[in-house]
Write a structure and sequence with these properties.
mainly alpha, single chain, Butyryl-CoA Dehydrogenase, subunit A, domain 3, three-stranded antiparallel β-sheet, 3 strands
């Protein structure tokens, strides 16, 4: 049901999760070179095993947000899964900033790029979708009471 507001917000979450793979979220600067770090394998010259967990969580957010769109008949489950995507995005943000402390070596500095803040926008869209799903459920329950 594409005409519902929450569907559009969940579609925006899915698009942002897809864009998250291509955009770098950190820029590591060494004494002589600098390179971006993104979730897509092969994006940075030094592959760090610490990006696999955020990559898996981002994939879960992408799959869940698309799945939630098609669960429009079960609003309670849709509400719970939307809140789960919010939780996954919070964990992704925490892992991005945790990588700052794990990856740092002597002589390297790390600066955050725009990709590190995409999950924040995704959280806002997921919250709005959750809000409208809850509103729909309250509307259906109130209509059932009137009968």
């Amino acid at each position: 049901m594409i005409q519902r507001k929450q569907t559009l917000f969940l579609l925006a979450v899915a698009i942002l999760s897809g864009i998250q793979y291509c955009l770098p979220f950190q820029k590591v600067t060494s004494s002589e070179t600098s390179w971006p770090v993104c979730l897509m394998p092969g994006c940075s010259p030094e592959i760090n095993s610490n990006i696999y967990f955020p990559m898996v969580l981002n994939t879960l957010v992408l799959i869940l947000s698309i799945l939630i769109i098609f669960l429009y008949k079960n609003r309670v489950l849709q509400f719970k899964l939307t809140n789960l995507t919010i939780l996954f995005n919070v964990v992704i943000i925490g892992l991005f900033f945790l990588l700052d402390f794990v990856v740092i070596e002597a002589g390297r500095t790390i600066s955050f790029q725009f990709g590190a803040f995409l999950p924040v926008i995704s959280i806002v869209f997921a919250y709005l979708a959750s809000h409208f799903i809850k509103k729909d459920e309250q509307l259906v329950r109130s209509a059932d009471r009137i009968r």
